[in-house]
Amino acid sequence: MSQAQPIVITGGARRIGLALAQHFVTCGQPVIISYRTHYPVIGELEQAGVCCIAADFSTDEGVLNFARQIREQNPAGLRAIIHNASQWIAEGGASSDADVMTAMLQIHVRAPYLLNQTLASIVGSSETASGDIVHFTDYVVERGSDKHIAYAASKAALDNLTRSFARKLAPRIKVNAIAPSLIMFNPEDNASYRQNALDKSLMRIAPGEQEIIHLVDYLLSSQYATGRTFAVDGGRHLR
Ligand SMILES: NC(=O)C1=CN([C@@H]2O[C@H](COP(=O)(O)OP(=O)(O)OC[C@H]3O[C@@H](n4cnc5c(N)ncnc54)[C@H](OP(=O)(O)O)[C@@H]3O)[C@@H](O)[C@H]2O)C=CC1
Ligand SMILES: Nc1nc2c(c(=O)[nH]1)N=C([C@H](O)[C@@H](O)CO)CN2
């Protein structure tokens, strides 16, 4: 029996990307992840058969080098690409506004764009809906953000790439976006931040990675959904 085509998850060594990688491994689905920081979990993933490729997408060279390795190591092609890699940088920190915008456009626009352009030809097969690309955007694409201006704008560009690539790659490949609001906190989030964030949605929870896993499974099982953004935001738009 021919080996199933692997799913590529960018930024797959922590939090949502890691949960997705572990989920697919449990399902017997081959997985390739990119990682930037070599967390201890990388060893466990490799033991479980995950192909872990070091890649820093902060330069086009890093992006294209990752794509080259993917093409060289996977002549039979890919089942899907999940563009999870991201940085959530606010204005007013150590970096200048110009550097924040550059970094946000690099990781959320240039990296997905270049990876899709260089890898789409090996995603899926000749069959309709045999391949998938998933972009992780954000609820703030709808509303903007006064604290993460460049981040929101870059995710809005990624949202638009969803429709462009859906038009270009149909019917062989479906291209969709997932637009989360609060899914999981960061360790440094204090109690007042956490309560304030919970109060922004109708559901008032941080649902965790499983919420995203369920939706990714649906998108990959669909024969029809493409060019759409799927909100996972607890009804935040109705608050
Ligand atoms: N968590 C949440 O509540 C929400 C998440 N989202 C979106 O969901 C996705 C996953 O979120 P989450 O798991 O919290 O993301 P994290 O910010 O925790 O992790 C993102 C991953 O991307 C990697 N990464 C960042 N910059 C680069 C780079 N330049 N090159 C290569 N890899 C890089 C990180 O590597 P490293 O660990 O080495 O830095 C990390 O593994 C993201 O796209 C995010 O924007 C949207 C709304 C809410
Ligand atoms: N790359 C990341 N993007 C985002 C994160 C994160 O931790 N990493 N977190 C959020 C927040 O949860 C926000 O949705 C609610 O405060 C947004 N994006």
Average pLDDT works out at 97
Please name the CATH architecture.
3-Layer(aba) Sandwich
Helix tally equals: 8
The proportion of residues in beta strands is 5-15%
- The stretches of 5 or more residues where confidence is low (pLDDT under 50) are none
Strand runs, count: 7
CATH topology description? Rossmann fold
Radius of gyration from the alpha-carbon trace, in angstroms: 17 Å
CATH class, please?
Alpha Beta
Helix content: 40-55%
> What structural class should be given to the helix and strand makeup?
alpha/beta
Task: Give a written overview of the molecule.
There is one protein chain. The protein has a seven-stranded parallel beta sheet with strand order 3-2-1-4-5-6-7, sandwiched between helices. The chain is built from eight helices and seven strands; from the N terminus they run E-H-E-H-E-H-E-H-E-H-H-E-H-H-E. It is α/β, with parallel strands linked by helices and 239 residues long. The chain has a single domain, classed as NAD(P)-binding Rossmann-like Domain (Rossmann fold, 3-Layer(aba) Sandwich). It has helices at 15-26, 41-47, 60-73, 97-119, 140-143, 149-169, 191-198, 209-221; strands spanning 7-9, 31-35, 51-54, 80-83, 131-136, 173-180, 229-232. Helix 3 (60-73) packs parallel to helix 4 and helix 4 (97-119) runs parallel beside helix 6. Helix content is 43%, strand content 14%. Bound molecules: NADPH dihydro-nicotinamide-adenine-dinucleotide phosphate and ligand LV4SOB2L.
